[in-house]
Amino acid sequence: MTDRALLFYSRLQFLALVTILTVAGLVYGVTVNFWISIHDVSIADATVGSDPEMGVQRTIRLDHMNKYSVTVRLFPSDEFVCSYSPPPFPYSKTATLPKNLTLNWWIGAPEDNECRAENLPAGTYITNTCHTVIEPFGGWVPDKTGCHLSNPFEMKTPDIGQDYLLQEQRALERQIEAISRELEGSKK
Predict the structure, then answer these.
(1) How far apart are CA 38 and CA 36, in angstroms?
(2) Rounded CA separation 33/27 (Å)
(3) Which residues pair with 89 in a beta bridge?
(4) C-alpha to C-alpha distance for 168 and 138, rounded to whole angstroms
(5) Which residues make Cβ contacts (< 8 Å) with residue 75, sequence separation at least 6?
(6) CA angle centred on 89, ends 87 and 93, rounded to 5°
(7) Residue 2: helix, strand or coil by DSSP?
(8) H or E, element range at 138
(9) 62-110 pLDDT per residue, tens
């Protein structure tokens, strides 16, 4: 072989090595955080039957197709409660969260779905939010997924005080008296 042919083959081998390392870097070195990062998910304690307020710190760096899921588990047992994941949809780096963010908005489940805040019985819970970037780099590398746990939050039984119960009892007694008077008047 001539020196020129050896130089060509060595450059070709070098180019192949660089290509392999670049692809390996994209496949294994680039995480979901290249597109989206969830820094904090904080959910406030709430009363059973209500929709807890929450705060989320996130950064969307690039427009991309994304699939997310939110799983609710009991805390600290980690027992599965429910999970919801809509079909993939485009995420925009200009997207903003609502001013009054709630757990139902974050989960995104339709009203007839079991995974709604108002369906959670009294207890302490934690959520796990996972984002999957679909076909990153045009599908040249596998989907990228990252997850973030919320703080533990409590769904509390409503505190019904004795005064409230007495008011309700008096209101019911007045209604019964009114119905009794109507019945007596209809007999005459």
Answers:
(1) 7
(2) 14
(3) 66
(4) 63
(5) 124, 125, 126, 152
(6) 150
(7) coil
(8) helix 136-139
(9) 999 999 999 999 999 999 999 999 999 999 999 999 999 999 999 998 8
